[in-house]
Every structure is written in C-alpha cells, then in structure tokens.
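Structure request: CdaR family transcriptional regulator, Shewanella fodinae.
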Amino acid sequence: MYFLDAATAQQIVDRTMRIIDHNINVMNSQGVILGSGDSSRINTVHEGALLAISQNRTVVIDDGGVHSLHGVKPGINLPLHYHGQIIGVVGITGAPAQLMQFGELLKMTAEMMVEQANSLEVEQWRKRQREEFILQLIRHEGSYPEEMQTWAKQLQIDLTVPRVAAVIELQAHELQHTSLRDIQLLLEYPQRNNLVALTALDQLVILKPAFLDGCSWDPSLEDIRIEKLLARLPADTKGRLKIALGHYFPGAGGIVRSYRTACETLALGKRRAPEQTKYLYQDHALPVLLSGLGDDWRGQELAAPFRLLQKRDRRGVLTKTLQVYLQHFGDQQRCADALYIHRNTLRYRLEKITQITGIDLNSLDGLLQLYLGEVLERLQS
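Returned structure:
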C-alpha cells in the first residue's frame, strides 16, 4: 500500500495554489493534515477528511457544517485514490458553490502528482537495489547462490554475460561541477549493458561486457572505448579523472579478480605515472602481480639480493650496470655497447655483482630473482 508523505502533500499544495486562489489542504488516510497553505493547520486532524475517507465520497462543508465538525472550515474535500485504494484527501477552503468547478480537476492533478512521486520513488529504489547488487558482485567469490541469481533476475541483470571491471576516480573540485553521477550517466546511456555503481565518494566501478567483438576478450578494443569516453568529457574533468581497466577472468569469481586487478592497476599507475589519465592492466601486469608481495616475506626474500647490491654500491655504478644487463637479456656485447665500456670492464662489474649478491648471473633463476627484486624495489620507492 502507498502512504502519502508530507513532502508530496506539500508539493501538491504549493503547485495547485499557484493556479487556484484558495487555501489547499492535503490529508493522509488518518485525516491528519500533512500539507497546507496555512502552516498552522499542519499536523491537526480534519474531521471532514475522516468523513470523506470513511464514506469514500466528496464531502461538502458549508457554514453550518463548521459547527458540527472539528478542525474544519467551509470548503470541499475529495478522497484521493491510488491503485484503487484511498490514500488521503485533498480539500479546498472557501464557499462550496464557488469551488465545485475546481474539485475534480484538483483531485485528478493531485492523484497524478502522487503517481509521479511514487514512480520516481520506485525508480530510485530500483537504482539503489541495482547498485547494491553490483557491490555484491565485486565482493562475492565463487559461484552465485540461488538468492543472488533470483535477485539478478528481478533486476534484469544477466549473470552469464562475461564482464571485465574498470575503476574511475574523480578528484572533487568546488569550482568544477562534473560529478561521478554525471559520468555514471555517460556510461549507462546510451544503453551498453554496463553495470555501474559508486564504491566511494570519489570512485565508481564499471562492469563492462568483456567480448566487444562477440567472441573474445580484446584489451585493445576496450582501450578504444575508454578513449571515446574521455573524448565525451569536459576538458576540466579529464584533469581530475583517473581510469584503470582490469584483466578479464572467466568463470566463477572472475568479476572479483577483475575488480581487484583494476584497483591495483589504478593504485600503481597513480604512483608510477601520476600525469597519465588512463591505466591498463596489460601495460602494468608484472608490477601489479608483484605489488601484493611488497610486505610479504616472499617479496622480502626476492628483493634481498638486489637491495644488498644497492646498499654496497654507493656510487650506483653496479646497480646501473645490472639494470642495463637485464634490459639486454644478458647479452654482454650489447650491454657493454650501451654503457660505452669495454667488455673486460663489464665482466669485472658482473663479477662484483655476483660477489655481493651471491647470485650466479649465468643462471636464469638468478637473473629472474634480480630482475624481480629490482621491480619490487621500484614499487616500494
């Protein structure tokens, strides 16, 4: 059942009194005045309204009726209906003979405003439910239980559609009015089957259909879509916005993992390239995968040899040599050429690196550990 609220009641009063030069009262189903042009009458009981409700008819109150009913003035009172139920009464104060011409028109107007208010309320409720469901999607690991599947059907969300997560962050600025809600509208309309929800005051998540070509996951197509979105934004907004695209993971729990990669990519991208607007997981995959090891004992062990080299190499010559050596995949001639040194000088430096780190540079495992250690150290700095 719909319950008439004070805000809607007063809205009916305010709008209709602009047209009709008489005081208007709107009462709820208990006869209590919720809205009125006379504020002193709000929250008082109108016995004429109670009569209109109990008998489901228009009640006319003349000068004689004023003395027999409590809380009334001359006028007419018409019951308001919504989906066949009485939800309240609208009353016009004045001489009844002069008001009959307005009665049905006022009643129809009030009922239309109730219908509109309820439609907006239902739409807002559905929107809140949809956002809450999306937040559940980015937290839920594994297959979806029956209650989530039922919820999805009610919201007309197809859980079988493969999706990839993207995260948008927008810095607030008091002089610039584009908000995350504005961006949300751009992402939802025209209809692209995106699932969009605010995750924080400055951040939203987009769960996008992953197979833009209808067949497979192609990050380059998503990159193009992101560029098109950025092109639709005001210039001042682009400077405040960061967007990160995660990786696509098939199967149960894929959305959660995709969302996590998007968040990690955003955090890493902001640290490593704060001047950029767009960050793609595919461009930062290794650092993103390693970022969770920073404080873990495994990460500490991986980075230990490289950090020891940095500590002993006060001038940074050996560290620079190792970085160039790794960039050239252990090719000594190309490394020596890049450093503008003789190969014998390079061999001497590589031997020093081995002595300090205890890592065999002729071993693939050794080279890999030093490379990963260097990446982890960059992530920490």
